[in-house]
């Protein structure tokens, strides 16, 4: 089993505000993504390397209300909620084994499709993000090519993802078990501090940082 950093996700009250948040922070234009009818969401994308990308995701106002809680805690977002770097997603070549190896509750493995893409992803039944998104979601792509390979290269590259986590030793041990590879830096938090993320991204304008957003 091997695993890698697959993508980072920005959750927003609506797609336009999420796109503005990222484009103003990084100085580049995001590209079209698509719809997720099963979740009632849609997204926009930015390539951050040959096999990694950034996703802005929000409720799709034109989609039917899903029969379950939406992923990425989108049901908890209000119109006044600011966009935030919500979570990170770890790609594995054996999601069943990876899920079994995780010490946290990942939620069930759900099969998803969008156009020619097909993947399996862990989603808690209530749509929550473990540890406020500091604990990663698991994904396994079941169709090729990887989404990042078909995105235009805007000159952006993820330099490092900082994860501020309440249980760093547990997280480090889990990533070792998953044979994780990726420039992810784990930082322990003092008691009561909110878990969060910081993404350092090399852009044509220089190194930029996507700030964390805290709980709604």
Please characterize this protein's 3D structure.
With 216 residues, the protein is mainly beta. 13% of the residues lie in helices and 40% in strands. The strands form 2 sheets. Strands 1, 2, 3, 4, 5, 6, 7, 8 and 10 form a 9-stranded mixed sheet that branches. A 4-stranded mixed sheet has the order 11-9-12-13.
What would a concise description of this structure say?
The protein is mainly beta and 216 residues long. The chain contains 3 helices and 13 strands; from the N terminus they run E-H-E-E-E-E-H-E-E-E-E-H-E-E-E-E.
- Which structural class do you get from the secondary structure elements? mainly beta
The average pLDDT is 92
For the record, give the distance between the C-alpha atoms at the N and C termini, rounded to a whole number.
35 Å
Q: Give me the strand/helix succession.
A: EHEEEEHEEEEHEEEE
Q: Determine Rg (CA atoms, Å).
A: 16 Å
Helical run tally: 3
DSSP, total strands: 13
Give the uncertain stretches in residue-range form: 212-216
Apparent shape:
globular
**Helix percentage range:** 10-25%
What's the helix and strand layout?
Layout: E1 3-11, H1 15-26, E2 31-36, E3 41-49, E4 52-59, E5 84-92, H2 95-101, E6 109-114, E7 117-122, E8 137-141, E9 157-165, H3 168-177, E10 180-181, E11 184-188, E12 196-203, E13 206-210
Parallel strand pairs: 1-4, 1-10, 5-8, 9-11
Antiparallel strand pairs: 1-5, 2-3, 3-4, 6-7, 7-8, 9-12, 12-13
Provide key terms for this protein.
single chain; 216 residues; mainly beta; 9-stranded mixed β-sheet; 4-stranded mixed β-sheet; 40% strand; disordered C terminus
């Amino acid at each position: 089993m091997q695993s890698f950093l697959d993508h980072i996700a920005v959750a927003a009250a609506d797609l336009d505000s999420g796109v503005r948040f990222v484009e103003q922070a990084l100085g580049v234009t995001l590209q079209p993504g698509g719809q997720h009818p099963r979740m009632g969401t849609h997204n926009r994308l930015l390539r951050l390397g040959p096999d990694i990308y950034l996703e802005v995701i929000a409720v799709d106002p034109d989609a039917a209300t899903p029969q379950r809680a939406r992923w990425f805690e989108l049901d908890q977002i209000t119109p006044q909620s600011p966009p935030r770097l919500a979570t990170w997603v770890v790609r594995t070549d054996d999601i069943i084994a990876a899920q079994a190896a995780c010490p946290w509750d990942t939620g069930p493995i759900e099969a998803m499709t969008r156009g020619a893409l097909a993947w399996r992803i862990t989603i808690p039944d209530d749509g929550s993000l473990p540890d406020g998104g500091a604990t990663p979601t698991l994904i396994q792509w079941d169709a090729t090519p990887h989404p990042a390979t078909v995105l235009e290269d805007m000159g952006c590259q993820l330099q490092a993802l900082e994860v501020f986590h309440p249980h760093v030793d547990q997280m480090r041990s889990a990533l070792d078990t998953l044979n994780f590879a990726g420039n992810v830096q784990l930082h322990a938090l003092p008691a009561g501090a909110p878990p969060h993320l910081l993404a350092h991204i090399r852009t044509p304008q220089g190194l930029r940082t996507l700030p964390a957003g805290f709980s709604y």
